[in-house]
Amino acid sequence: MIAAGLLALLLTAADADTGRQVAWLYAGMGLVSAGTLGWSWLKFGRRPAGVQQDNLWLRSSTSRGSIAWVTGLVLTGFYVLLYWFPEYLERLVRPLDGLSLWLRGQPANQWFLYGTFYTLAILLMGGRALWKYRHSRYQVIRTLSVMFFQTGFAFILPGLLQLFQKPEFYFTYFWPLKYGYLFPNDVNYLLENGQALGVFMVFWGAMMSFLATPVLTYFFGKRWYCSWVCGCGGLAETAGDPYRQLSDKSRQAWRWEVRLIYPIFGAIIIITALLWVNYSWGNNFLGQVGDVAAKWYGFLIGALFSGVVGVGFYPILGNRVWCRFGCPMAAYLGLLQKHFSRFRISTNGGQCISCGNCSNVCEMGIDVKQYAQRGEPIIRASCVGCGMCSTACPRGVLNLENGPREGRYAGSPLIHADSLRILS
């Protein structure tokens, strides 16, 4: 059914008849949806509940084999067309005019096509995740959360705002991830075109960036956003779930993570500051320097890294390439989590059997097993609190906690005593 659906989508792009295009597109999406949900039930619904990692490194699709490379090439090609050659997607866009007119009051464009496919992917693969992780209450609620926020706040609500002739706004994205929301031109646009609602949008973006984010991260770590709300994280946790084991756990990969993500975070801070300084001087202080920097940032980071590489390389580098190496929001949240938060993953080294399940499922490249063996709490800036290490552990060694900051970096003396006794 999935193969037939993909064929129907190809026929949509190849057929010049507008009537047949609509039929092909909706038939394709229907077949892919039914096939994905049916396959998920056949694969996971009929088995006993639990994380099953058998044959992950033997299948071509999940071990960087030929199927994975073909999948990565298709995804990368789609993003290249989406960002720079949208005219080649026109026959996929036009059949969505009816849905777009009903939701947004205007014809579809390539971004509405992308939003539709993106939301559908999260819903379908979210259904797969619900079957796969149904034994874990935490994973079920977390999956339902990302499905809800993507569908309601990142797809339906922005469309309704346009329908009522208000500025399109995504309430689940804010600076520094949605960097434009605090750029002077964007702020002025919201204030001029949104009236009272525009004022609230600007207030919401600023409040979420500088007040709510530190407070929520202090209590819950970066998981409140990266694993429960963010659309990028939502796609990674659902559509990217089959590839989480591909995340590189080496120290060299960690070094590249630090070399990339924090300079990117610093760059967007500098660009935002330059734009506001220039704006306050009547655009005469720096000329076009800030605008040029913002355009290059949008091209290299906002499009090439977050889109083409961030999703296109799922089958090769794992499902959190963007979140791990490029997302400025992840860098911001990570700094708060490591130095300011109550969140940690506690470990009980006395019960660890060194099976490696926890490290295998960590999408952020953390070698969790090394912490678990020593009974040390895991406090890493990169950890998104997905909880998969705890879910996959057969011994209950790992627990996600929002504990007091006192003794946060120290393991339990009892745990260390047990570990030493077993070792001796």
UniProtKB/TrEMBL annotation:
A Pfam match: Fer4_5
Coiled coil regions, renumbered to chain: none
Residue ranges constituting the 4Fe-4S ferredoxin-type domain according to the UniProt record: 343-371, 375-403
Keyword Kinase: no
Keywords, in A-Z order: 4Fe-4S, Electron transport, Iron, Iron-sulfur, Membrane, Metal-binding, Transmembrane, Transmembrane helix, Transport
Stored InterPro entries: 4Fe4S_Fe-S-bd, 4Fe4S_Fe_S_CS, Electron_Trans/Redox
PROSITE patterns reported in the protein's UniProt record: 4FE4S_FER_1, 4FE4S_FER_2
Highest taxon in the source lineage: Bacteria
Keyword Iron (UniProt): yes
Parts of the chain that traverse the membrane: 26-45, 66-85, 111-131, 143-164, 196-220, 260-277, 297-317
PANTHER family xrefs: FERREDOXIN-TYPE PROTEIN NAPH (PTHR30176)
Name used for this protein in its record: 4Fe-4S ferredoxin-type domain-containing protein
